[in-house]
Amino acid sequence: MAKLTPRDVDFNEWYNTLVLRADMAEHGPVRGTMIVKPYGWSLWENLQAGLDRRFKETGHQNAGFPLFIPESFIKREAAHVEGFAPELAVVTHAGGEKLEEPLVVRPTSETIIGYAFSKWAQSYRDLPILINLWNSVVRWELRTKLFIRSTEFYWQEGHTAHATAEEADFETRQMLDIYADFSINDAAIPVIAGEKTESERFAGANQTFTVEAMMGDRRGLQAGTSHNLGQNFAKAFDIRYLDQNNERQYCWTTSWGLSTRFIGAIIMVHGDDQGLVMPPRLAPHQTVIVPIFRNDDEKTMVMEPVSRIKQELADRGIRVKVDDREHVTPGFKFNDWELRGVPIRIEVGPRDVAKGTVAIARRDIPGREGKQFVAQEGLTAIVEQILDDIHQAMYEKAKQFLEDHTHRPKDYDSFKEAIGDGFARVWWDGTTQEELQIKEETGATIRCLPLDKPEGNGICFYTGRKTDKVAMFGRGY
Amino acid sequence: MAKLTPRDVDFNEWYNTLVLRADMAEHGPVRGTMIVKPYGWSLWENLQAGLDRRFKETGHQNAGFPLFIPESFIKREAAHVEGFAPELAVVTHAGGEKLEEPLVVRPTSETIIGYAFSKWAQSYRDLPILINLWNSVVRWELRTKLFIRSTEFYWQEGHTAHATAEEADFETRQMLDIYADFSINDAAIPVIAGEKTESERFAGANQTFTVEAMMGDRRGLQAGTSHNLGQNFAKAFDIRYLDQNNERQYCWTTSWGLSTRFIGAIIMVHGDDQGLVMPPRLAPHQTVIVPIFRNDDEKTMVMEPVSRIKQELADRGIRVKVDDREHVTPGFKFNDWELRGVPIRIEVGPRDVAKGTVAIARRDIPGREGKQFVAQEGLTAIVEQILDDIHQAMYEKAKQFLEDHTHRPKDYDSFKEAIGDGFARVWWDGTTQEELQIKEETGATIRCLPLDKPEGNGICFYTGRKTDKVAMFGRGY
Q1: Contact A34 B105 (CB under 8 A)
Q2: Is pLDDT of B455 > 70?
Q3: pTM of the entire structure?
Q4: Contact between A29 and B125 using a beta-carbon 8 Å cutoff
Q5: Which of A62, A91, A151 minimises the CB distance to B90?
Q6: Dihedral of the CA atoms B291, B296, B302, B307 (nearest 10)?
Q7: Lowest mean pLDDT: which of A246-260, A442-456, B73-87, B133-147?
Q8: Is A2 exposed, middle or buried (CB count within 10 Å of its CB: 0-12, 13-18, 19+)?
Q9: Distance from CA of B94 to the nearest CA of A (A)
Q10: Pairing of strands A406-407, A423-427
């Protein structure tokens, strides 16, 4: 099989080829739709498990909301309709007849959630309402890219209603923290948590927070967002409750989401010229065992320890696969699993059996350096340790990359240079108009206003004015 | 709160009220759509886990397929389009423009799966393909009922492709067995496994198998179906592979599904006049602990063992909830959890604390008979045992009910009487025409031709002819 186009030569080509070749996803028959293949879906299931556990630990419950939303709902919140109207898919006919009111295929569920919450929130005792939906949504996009931008994508959308502004603010930030924690500790992706500027805000939100990551081509990608919706949707959908003084009050609501886009981030942050590099805690297969034999005698000899090792690893909860295909060579299998990014490859051949050892190869360290021979005895503990080491090494590498390509320019010229290489972290005092001007001239947008910023003031690189605001600029996906 | 309408008085009213009052689901704003509330969704998640484990153990993998299918796809398989055309929802506009080809919102995914399988199945080495989708589908229904029939419902749809007819037959029956095993061992619902007659067959299948259950009103409900699609979809979508002799062959495909309808079955099989009765292995909460106290001193005294017991149960993997609401009485809580069908209620009051005991009440045995006082020491093992006992008792009760209301009439008059009471299991030699005639006259359809039937022959109750076929008739949902 031909080598992948190196990332340096054409990152986009590298990505598109890799997604297809690693059996992650392919294009559906309808333009812009995506078929997520079992290998890609298995990664998504592991993402779901990691997030779902965190959501439930913080008191959220899952629910199921309809796909179809009356068109009139979308129009009730002024900013919301403006943001989403151009992207809607509309059902006009059903059951062989024209519908009286067209139905929108949900682009996001704030409006239909508003409809339900207005019934569910009667008294202060009903609050907070903390729910989450795992579903797919549809946004008609012209330029699509598997996982990154598709007309239908999978995600979770959390929706909550609270009695006070403080609680809604706490929830918005808590969920942002959860996304950051998940990125770092499950996906080995360093992120910058911050607020979006007005121009990048969710349609209908008072504040949008984001965790931003840097891809291998040094572009930014929004990995998860958390929105403080204030009372905007509560007023549009009459979400009110009786407080302890028996007075009707509007609720404060939030929403937050992370999508299959995150799979694109995993590919683009960790992948190398040989293929995917799966973060161990999310990898569909954490370990693949390749038995090596040239004849039936050797096969019998090798398969006994292979089966035993597989069982021992599986018993400890390690996701392990034995590649016992007979019509391809071990070399083919090595390349195949390298392409698919399995963190650890274990090879067992007749010589290993004789010595009671196996060969272990780390995906994140290519060639001999990443290879070691270890005893079969006690292998499970070693594999667990190596998986942790790989996670840590992948995180450190991505963090170093992010830092190496994050600059602190003091003027517009060095800013342009910085943007050519990655992110520019700057003192910022510009207007929305100036932000758009910079975008037009450099292709860079404000990825976020980082929450973690120094005290005090600095000079805005663009306006020259003194400011206490810091912005992270970068070209984005 | 008013009592539920007793099932004997109006089963339909009992069901509809219970679903709403127990916070399982409610109607969405678009006619026929359903909002599954957190309590109902939690039950669905437990169903999903039980099925998903079985699917994966038998080698199936999950994937994600698009919601939108080109309208032309639906038309490729003649029987399929005839069956589904009247129920389709159609997207005609998207992104502000009229689409060149309308898009169908999937009513089921055989056609788009056919599109993908035709690319995935190249060689005999690619077979079998064994995948499953967890998603929602849309069928425009006129008469809807929460969980039982809605325009959008949640389900899993399995899709497989095989090299031989034998393998497809094995798969079809294997998945039927899995549905039966799940019904019996997870949901405590006895089922009759059998084949559907031609008139009830899936549109496009050669054979449809079903597991049928009897609801509390003695009507039948199809709890899961498994279809042998023969080469129908393979021919319509050109799903072909190169066999070992390098010759192109059509695949043999299957599909199989179980939906949120199954939640309706759980409600209607096990529920009683007091409310839901959740089967312990699927129950959102397997145990609820109600602390009982009249003042702060008693509260302090009671909450210590309550927290400890909760932790002990949770550590053993028991889904346990402490109801520590302070604005409602213990009596209110007892009724509330009875309505919601929690299998075991544990009460802890000051006297229990003094004695080192708790009171345990079984949901499936009302009143004093179902109540016992046990020591706090060793409670977890007792709770585990009682959960198993409840499962067994619920299954036996449902099985006895099914048997009590299954009759073996020998002629049409006694057949009509039997149908008035439940199912009629009969020798059957009629035609499709005669089957429809019987439906018109009695409201009964052939639920299935049971796979488990006696050897030899008998006399058809309707035609008087000798036959070796057995049919199970009943009124259905």
Answers
A1: no
A2: yes
A3: 0.97
A4: no
A5: A91
A6: 80
A7: B73-87
A8: exposed
A9: 4
A10: parallel
